[in-house]
Give the backbone structure.
Amino acid sequence: MNPFATGLLAYHAGDRNACFVIRRDDGYEQTVPLKVFFQTEFDPLESMALDLCRGKILDVGAAAGRHSIELRRRGLRVCALDILSEAAQILSDRGVTAPIVGDILHWSGDQFDTVLMLMNGIGLVGTPEKLDEFLCHAPNLLTHGGQIICDSIDVSVSQTPTHVAYRENNLRKGLYPGQQCFSISYAGQQGEIFPWLHLDAACLSQHCRKANLDCNIVHKEADGHYLVSIMKRSG
């Protein structure tokens, strides 16, 4: 079992104190309460993203479905996609119709007016090379005039010594500063190491241009967190 999936199931089953630990490969770690994947309150950036959603929506990395459920409450058509079959069961239990188990990097079962990738969802590509692959694949997911709404973090904003050291070490190794590796543990269960990508807005825009996509910055916050809309170029 994936420890993140195990934690989601535990919270869904009633353990309101369930938490997982996410650990970077330099030893930095955070304890994350599973309730954040079920809560119905949204921070300002999330609220802005949800307000931008239109038409038929694909919620990527839906987990327990907090965004899908809110969008359905607003009367919008939503398909929820997650790579974890356990998440699909939770989504079904919570009233999300016909959740999809799949990997967005390869899945192309339909086209959507909005592809929603919140909670740093585009970071799942892992590397700049995989980002290019995803952005070339993305038009297959979009209707004419369709959009990808996603957020990321510019890691250069942080002056925390641990984070500064990590990005400087990446640069010494010839890696992009926001390229990171993590693992998740829950209740003694240790997951495999996986890559994650935090992108600055200029870098994301550059990769979008290579894929003939427009990247529009919707909102930036002081901590480096920002929201973008990505669309096919017209003409």
Q: What stands out?
A: The longest helix spans residues 161-172. The first strand starts at residue 19 and ends at 24.
